Amino acid sequence: MAWDFSTDPEFQEKLDWIDEFVREEIEPLDLAFSSHLVYDRTHEIHRTVIPPLQEEVKKRDLWACHLGPDLGGLGYGQLKLALMNEILGRSQFAPMVFGCQAPDSGNAEILAHYGTDEQKAKYLQPLLDGKIVSCYSMTEPQAGSDPQQFKCRVTRDGDEYVIDGEKWFSSNFRYASFAIVMAVSDPDVPVYQGTSMLLVPTDTPGIEIIRNVGLAGEKPGDGSHAYVRYNQVRVPADNLLGGEGQAFAIAQTRLGGGRIHHAMRTVGVCQRALDMMCERALSRVTQGEVLAKKQMVQEKIADSYIQLQQFRLMVMHAAWTLDQVGSKTGRMEIAMVKVLTPQVLHDIVYKALHIHGSLGTSNEMPLMGMWAMMPVMGIADGPTEVHKITVARQVLKGYKPSEGLFPSAHLPPRVEAARQKFADLLEHEVAQH
User: Fold this and answer.
1) Which of 115, 173, 112, 114 shows the shortest CA–CA distance to 139?
2) pTM (two decimals)
3) What CA–CA distance (Å, rounded) separates 49 from 370?
4) Which fold has domain 134-241?
């Protein structure tokens, strides 16, 4: 019987090194530079600061761990990646330094599984080498969680495909060398069978960035989530990923991994918030004693710790499930952690922010930045409600309707059946009285 919650000593040594490396070498980047520079390859830090850090990671066999050896990675699997991401989640720059940043990690998985040899050489290898970044261009202005509303079209024209339409929130498009674009190739069949996926270099004629959208608090124009218009954009037919109509089947390879990676990093963010909460509670004095002695503060700390441990174990189990059976079979486990991610982030960060008082709401603490990510986590890679539906449908598959008028747990027939089963004993008991 295998039932183990331990980390093998050899990998724990790697985790200990990652923890110190992130704290000493990478977290200072978050304090000195804008998070947008994570993907801006034109900035000086990508020539002088980040490459040496990436080389150190590669020397220790910790680079691009999300892919197996047959796909160009190191084959650590999702469980080990989850343990790593607990630490990497503390820093905006850390995933880039370790070669597992979104959306590139998901795009690399797509290319590794479905790309031709030529596509892998041109797009995947530079991505794995950390020389370029990419974009995933799927969502549309009028179509959020309902792909049946997709209007962006792609048509075959000889040896080329022509893309025409708009995409919304194409993150990091302004910095990407290429985008993976989903567009409807056959409007006469259901969208799940009539949508295709193409590799589109971002310098292709006809691409227009209408504007770069930012998150709340960012200045107009400073954002990195592009509103893109594809004006009769032509790419070679060889740029098709998989076959025509296979986009949604391919997308599950990417989205499943992306969803659980968000959850993994959120564990690290929540742990950081809990650390700040506890330090504040032990440092701040009010009404003659430290906050940590106040029962309501103790309740917040206890609730946060318990919630984080529950979430962490669920994320680890989901990662283990993916290692065992793959993302398709582990859909429910992925959906469950995706549902919990924004809720846990909301609850723990808010408690930490509240205990810090006005300082917690200020720009002199990182808590408001963490808080701003909560609604993003509830929408990115599919809204929470969609994943709840997935969980419910998967759960219901294990049940069947009752055969009679009343539920199977209805007591009168069950009591009668039990009385018949033990009739002799019951008669003897009656006789004794």
Assistant:
1) 173
2) 0.89
3) 25
4) Butyryl-CoA Dehydrogenase, subunit A; domain 2 (2.40.110)
